[in-house]
Amino acid sequence: YEWLEQPENLLSLRKFPNAMRATTHYNSDTVVTQGYEWEKLPEGSLVVDVAGGIGNLTMALAGTHKHLRYVVQDRPAVIKAAFDVSSGH
């Protein structure tokens, strides 16, 4: 990932979140939302998505299991890309 953050690779860094989204598209929402007994976790339990990218899978999970709290963790450059994607940049 450090390679992506080098100035000469910024175009690749900007494309990376979309590439990750494409690789996780095939039924991944179903796998994440139904692959664990999320409904059995107590109200307000915290789910941390480490290396969660721009949060696609976490958003699918949050849409299905609203009784939980969520945090997406990733490197600072990825967090910035997530905000750029969500704001349309």
Topology of helices and strands:
Elements: H1 10-23, H2 28-34, E1 46-50, H3 56-64, E2 69-73, H4 76-86
Parallel strand pairs: 1-2
Helix pairs in contact: 2-3
Global structural class: mainly alpha
Portion in beta strands: 5-15%
The major beta sheet can be summarized as: 2 strands, parallel
How far apart lie the N and C ends? 21 Å
Helix share, percent: 40-55%
Q: What's the overall geometry?
A: elongated
Rg (CA only) = 14 Å
Can you give the mean pLDDT?
82
Helix run count: 4
- Give the strand order, joined by hyphens, for the main sheet: 1-2
Order of helices and strands: HHEHEH
Count of individual beta strands? 2
The stretches of 5 or more residues where confidence is low (pLDDT under 50) are none
Brief digest:
The chain has 89 residues and is mainly alpha-helical. Helix content is 46%, strand content 11%. It is built from 4 helices and 2 strands, in the order ααβαβα.
